[in-house]
């Protein structure tokens, strides 16, 4: 090694300057990615139940929720095209706010609804007023099916791929950004697959 | 000046304690506010309570399901009691919950690569710091090499610089 002490000092000084800068840059990029993800809906720090993802839907059978016909895990597993399953309740204000978005979505994807911890007559009334985007409707009056799916509140939405595999989940109301940036590309992928 | 202030503060302490107990009272009675929830067998009930106190209420997030009055917490309490009554082990019930809600539902996270790294981080950071300090110290302790004597050319330059 023939580096002079001055040179060695210089590289050390550069390292002392560069390492923290590089560390800060890495952290900055990471935080920026998280924030960007939060903004367009692909990352949600409050999303707590990941375990259901990429698993088949849990076993359940739901009675009819008027005006729709109830359904079971078997119905979802025998499907060949994607379905969006939405847990809602008449007592849930964010669900009410989400309804116009679901109505605008119903021509692009099949929607099935589950009325969570709700009296069937209240849920039916809710759908009469907000519009009904769902082609099948089950009533989870006791909330036990919600626990099987791992939901922690309403609204929650699951994208079910062919064969009844849960492909995507969100624990917050669907909005235009989430649909455009996350849901639409996923649906496109499932349709071509 | 300071004396009256102190007494008024002293008078405030019991008031504060009473206020605090009023605030905390609902939390204390919560777990027993509906006796119909409890299992008839006190042994099974205490086991269910022990399991429930290890499960996070996913609505309030920093309370256990035994402490929370949220609807989901009540439902999960019932699920725990059903499983206890069926004679399942604590581990079976925990696994049932984790299977649906992930490790987030456990108030004390399990030992894994991630949590091990998290918990050992202070020790690792301390060791790293000590190692760095040790090498820096040894370097400084080693006799600093005397700078080589100035060459004639450098001496001339220095003389020229100091003259100005």
Secondary structure elements and their pairing?
The complex is a heterodimer of chains A (193) and B (164).
Chain A: H1 5-39, H2 73-77, E1 83-88, H3 93-105, E2 110-116, H4 120-130, E3 136-140, H5 144-149, E4 156-161, E5 165-170, H6 176-192
Parallel strand pairs in A: 1-2, 2-3
Antiparallel strand pairs in A: 1-4, 4-5
Chain B: H1 2-30, H2 42-52, H3 71-85, H4 90-101, H5 113-141, H6 152-163
Helix pairs in contact in B: 2-3
Structure description:
- The complex is a heterodimer of chains A (193) and B (164).
- Chain A is of the alpha/beta class.
- Chain A folds into two domains: 1-39; 73-192, Glutaredoxin, CATH 3.40.30.
- Chain A has helices spanning 5-39, 73-77, 93-105, 120-130, 144-149, 176-192; strands at residues 83-88, 110-116, 136-140, 156-161, 165-170.
- Chain A is elongated, with a radius of gyration of 23 Å.
- Chain B is built from six helices and no strands.
- The termini of chain B are far apart.
- Mean pLDDT of chain B is 84; it is low at 28-32.
Q: Major beta sheet of chain B, specifics?
A: none
Task: Detail the poorly predicted runs of chain B.
Answer: 28-32
**Unreliable sequence segments of chain A:** none
Number of strands of chain A: 5
CATH architecture of the largest domain in chain B: Orthogonal Bundle
Summed up, the helix count of chain B is: 6
Averaging pLDDT over every residue of chain B, what do you get? 84
Strand content of chain B: under 5%
């Amino acid at each position: 090694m023939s580096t002079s002490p001055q040179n060695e000092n210089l590289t050390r000084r550069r390292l002392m300057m560069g390492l923290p800068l590089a560390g800060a840059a890495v952290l900055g990029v990471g935080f920026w990615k998280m924030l960007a993800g939060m903004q367009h809906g692909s990352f949600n720090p409050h999303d707590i139940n990941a375990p259901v993802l990429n698993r088949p839907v849990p076993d359940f059978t739901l009675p009819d929720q008027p005006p729709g016909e109830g359904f079971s895990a078997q119905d979802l597993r025998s499907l060949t095209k994607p379905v969006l399953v939405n847990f809602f309740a008449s007592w849930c204000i964010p669900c009410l706010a989400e309804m116009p978005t679901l109505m605008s979505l119903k021509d692009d994807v099949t929607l099935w609804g589950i009325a969570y911890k709700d009296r069937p007559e209240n849920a039916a009334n809710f759908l009469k007023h907000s519009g009904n985007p769902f082609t099948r409707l089950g009533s989870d009056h006791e909330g036990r099916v919600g626990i099987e799916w791992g939901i922690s509140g309403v609204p929650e939405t699951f994208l079910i791929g062919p064969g009844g595999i849960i492909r995507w989940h969100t624990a917050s109301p669907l909005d235009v950004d989430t649909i455009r940036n996350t849901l639409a590309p996923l649906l496109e992928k499932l349709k071509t697959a | 000046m300071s004396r009256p202030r102190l007494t008024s503060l002293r008078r405030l302490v019991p008031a504060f304690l009473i206020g605090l107990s009023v605030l905390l009272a609902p939390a204390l009675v919560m777990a027993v506010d509906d006796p119909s929830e409890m299992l008839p067998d006190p042994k099974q009930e205490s086991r269910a309570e022990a399991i429930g106190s290890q499960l996070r209420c996913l609505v309030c997030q920093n309370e256990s399901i035994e402490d929370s009055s949220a609807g989901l917490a009540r439902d999960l309490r019932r699920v725990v009691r059903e499983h206890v009554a069926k004679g399942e082990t604590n581990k079976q019930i925990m696994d049932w919950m984790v299977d649906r809600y992930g490790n987030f539902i456990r108030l004390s996270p399990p030992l894994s690569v991630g949590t091990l790294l998290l918990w050992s981080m202070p020790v690792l950071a301390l060791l790293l710091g000590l190692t760095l300090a040790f090498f820096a110290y040894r370097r400084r302790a080693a006799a600093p090499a005397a700078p080589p004597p100035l060459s004639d050319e450098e001496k001339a330059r220095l003389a020229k610089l100091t003259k100005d």
